[in-house]
Amino acid sequence: MIIVRTQRLKLFIIGLILLLSPSLRSAEIVSVETVVFKATSILGSTVIPYREVLLSAQVSGRLLSLNGEVGTAFARGQVIAEIDSTSLLAKRSAISAQVSTAKAALRNAKIQYQRELISPKSEDISAAPGFGMPAMMDIYMTRPMAEAAGSKYDSDMVRYSDLMHSATGLSTARSGVKKAIAQLHQINLKIRDAKSIAPFNGMLLQKMVEVGDTVQVGQPLLKFAYVHFLRLKADVPSGLVSGLNKGMIVPAKINGKEDTHAKITQIYPIADPLRHTVVVKFDLPVNTIASPGMYAEVILPMDEADKKVNIIPISALLKGRSLPSVLVLNDKGSELRLLRLGAKQGDDKVIVKSGLSEGDRIIDKPKAGAASGWMPKQDNKNKD
C-alpha cells in the first residue's frame, strides 16, 4: 500500500514539473509587445591598456640581453633589455681622468691666488741680486718719486692686475672641473640609457628586436603596458559627441559576447579633419575578461526622439528555417511571416525591426514543422 502511494506521489511531482516548465508548455497565442527605446548607435572600438609606452634605443650598439618574452610581467625599476655599453665604459674612464686633472689644476689655482693675496709678485725682492737692494731702492724710492713727479706708473694698478690674473686662473680652473664633471655625468646617463627599465608595473606586449641585433638611436625596441586596468578607444562621429559627457556610463560588448559597461574618461578636444571623428576613451570594470587589441562595441545615445520597437519571445521563432519567421494570426487562421531581427533583450526576447506591427498576435512555442494555417487548437482536436 505504501509503495503504491509513493509511486503516485512521484507521478504527481513529475506532472507538476512538466506543467510548470516553460520549455515544455504547449503552444499559446501572445500579442506583440511594443516598448519605447532611446535611439542609440553601436560603434566599434578597440581594447587598449590603461597605460602604454614605446621604449626606444637611446644609444647605438648591439642588443646584449632581453629579459623575457611577450606576456612577461615586470615590476617598476626592473631591467627589460640592455645594449652593450663597453665603449661607453671606456670613455667614462677617460673622462674620469680628465676630472682628476681638472681638480689638480683647481688646487694649484687656489694656492696661486692665496699667494698673490699674501705675497704680491709686484713686491717680490727675492728675484734681484745683492740682497735685493736694487729692488728695495726701486720699491721705496724710485717708484714713489716717479709717481710724485707725475709718472703714469701706478703700483696699485699693477697690484690689482696681478690679483685679477690669479683670480681669473682660479675661476678658469673651477670651470674646468665643472666641465669635466658634466661630461662624466653625461656619459653616466648614456650608460644608464643603455638599459631599458620598466617605468611602472606592467607587461611586455611586443618586442621589435632580438638579442644580437644592432640598434640605432631612436629605434623602437618594445612595447610595455599596464594591463591590470583596460580601456576602450573609439572614433566617435562628431555628431554624437555632443551627447556624451565625462563620467557617463554606456553599455559595451567585448568580442560580441561579453556584455558589460564602460565609463567615459576622456573626450579629445579636437576632431580628425579627414574622418570628422573624435577619439573617446572608456574605462572598463576591473576583472573584465578581455585583452589589449580585442574588438569591442559601445552603445552610445543619439540626439533623436525616442522610438517604439516591437519585441517578441525568442521561443515564437519557427525552428529549422534559414530565415527568422513566426506564425501571425489572421482571419483564416495563421500565416507565415519573415522577420528582420535586432538585438536580444535578455535571454528570452528579441527586437523585431520589420515584419510585425503593434497589436499583431503570434503563436508562441509552435510545434516543430508548423506552417501557415497551423493553430494550437489543432493539436487539442487531434488528441480528442
Biggest sheet, spatial arrangement of strands: 3-10-13-12-11-14
Count of the separate structural domains: 4
- The proportion of residues forming helix, as a percent range, comes to 25-40%
Low-confidence stretches: 17-24, 127-132, 380-384
Query: How is the biggest beta sheet arranged?
Result: 6 strands, antiparallel, barrel
How far the N terminus sits from the C terminus, by CA atoms, comes to 33 Å
Overall, the morphology is elongated
What is the SS-derived class?
alpha+beta
Beta-strand content bin: 25-35%
**How much is the radius of gyration in Å?**
45 Å
Total helical elements: 6
- Number of strand elements: 20
N to C succession of SSEs? HEEEEEEHHHEEEEHEEEEEEEEEEH
Mean pLDDT over the full residue set: 82
Fold topology:
Blueprint: H1 2-20, E1 28-31, E2 33-37, E3 40-56, E4 61-66, E5 73-74, E6 79-83, H2 86-118, H3 133-148, H4 155-193, E7 195-197, E8 202-207, E9 214-215, E10 220-237, H5 238-241, E11 249-254, E12 258-267, E13 277-283, E14 295-301, E15 307-313, E16 325-330, E17 333-338, E18 340-345, E19 349-354, E20 361-364, H6 376-383
Antiparallel strand pairs: 1-20, 2-15, 3-10, 3-14, 4-6, 4-9, 5-8, 6-7, 8-10, 10-13, 11-12, 11-14, 12-13, 15-19, 16-17, 18-19
Explain how this protein is built:
Mean pLDDT is 82; it is low at 17-24, 127-132 and 380-384. The strands form five sheets. A six-stranded antiparallel β-barrel has the order 3-10-13-12-11-14. A four-stranded antiparallel sheet has the order 2-15-19-18, with no helix packed on it. The radius of gyration is 45 Å and the shape is elongated. The chain has four domains: 23-38 and 307-383, conserved putative lor/sdh protein from methanococcus maripaludis s2 fold (Beta Barrel); 40-49 and 227-301, Elongation Factor Tu (Ef-tu), domain 3, CATH 2.40.30.170; 53-83 and 194-222, OB fold (Dihydrolipoamide Acetyltransferase, E2P); 87-193. With 384 residues, it is α+β, with helices and mostly antiparallel strands. Helices cover 31% and strands 35% of the residues. It contains six helices and 20 strands. The protein has helices spanning 2-20, 86-118, 133-148, 155-193, 238-241, 376-383, and strands spanning 28-31, 33-37, 40-56, 61-66, 73-74, 79-83, 195-197, 202-207, 214-215, 220-237, 249-254, 258-267, 277-283, 295-301, 307-313, 325-330, 333-338, 340-345, 349-354, 361-364. Helix 2 packs antiparallel against helix 4.
